[in-house]
Amino acid sequence: MYQALYRKWRPKTFDEVIGQEHITETLKTQVRSGHLSHAYIFIGTRGTGKTTCARILAKAVNCENPVDGNPCNQCRYCRGIDDGSILDVVELDAASNTGVDNVRDLREEAVFTPAVARKRVYIIDEVHMLSLAAFNALLKIIEEPPQHLMFILATTELQKVPATILSRCQRHSFRRIPTQRLADYLMHIAGTEDLKLEEEAAKQIARMADGGVRDALSILDGKRRHQHRGRLRDHGACREPESDPGLGSNPSERHDRCSAAVSDHLAGRERTGFLPRRDERSAARCPHRQGGSGRGR
Fold first, then answer.
1. CB of 180 closer than 8 Å to CB of 216
2. How far apart are CA 102 and CA 194, in angstroms?
């Protein structure tokens, strides 16, 4: 079954997350020592690893055999969290659960001890989308959580999260991935996936993704589909798009110049007789316009 690259290559351990070592090393140390916070907030632009690290952390705190702070991905807890069969790890999308009633339901069930795992973990993505009343309802349980409970919040818009929530969470800021680092990662994936990718093309994709791994893999996925269909030149090699200096680098400029070139070309064919003149073409489409109205005939 076909699987998108960004899903296939989603990191399973902290060591597989690229460009966020300042965060992953801290989280690994906390898992090893057992000195974990009851609430985290991950901040950063899209596609930089916030939700991925939240899932890895949820596995690591419940793992039976953690390896240097990483989840083993082999025990029943790791496998159950990956396939969604363990309901003690809950992932919510705040964009579709914005109301206070949603948070009240969460608060009522959060007080119960985990059914299977060691900790009950709530991952709330796009937490800035919660209403003010929902934030107030969430504040109480974040302020005085049970021992078995952990919250991991993720947001792309820190300024929309109330200060009362921020002050009770351990904050981690995710950075955009540098272009060269992201390009090297794309080259590694392309080699593993047997996809021909030139280094300049990898850099161009990395620049287009603007530091987001998910966006870069989505673009590369499109290149892979085109290659499999045989629509790329040079026997399927992904190359950096070439531009004609005469057409300009700006897309609108290229469009205007192309349109002008087509018009000049058609005008030239009219003059040389290879193409009927505009008035002849118009008359051919509307014969009643020749010699007045066609009704009197």
1. no
2. 45
Residue 260, C-beta contacts closer than 8 angstroms, at least 6 positions apart = none
Distance set, CA 45 to CA 49, 78, 115, 156, 175 (Å): 9, 27, 34, 5, 8
Helices (H), the chain: 5-8, 21-33, 50-62, 76-83, 100-110, 132-143, 163-166, 179-192, 199-209, 213-228, 233-236, 251-272, 278-285
Find the DSSP H helices in 86-197: 100-110, 132-143, 163-166, 179-192
Q: Phi, psi (5° rounding) for residue 90?
A: -115, 130
Asked if residue 161 has pLDDT above 90, the reply is yes
Residue 246 is encoded by which pair of tokens?
Answer: 């005469």
Q: How far from the centroid of its chain's Cα atoms is residue 145's Cα?
A: 31
pLDDT of residue 111: 87
Q: pLDDT of 236-292, one tens digit each?
A: 555 554 444 443 444 445 445 544 444 454 444 444 444 445 455 455 555 554 444
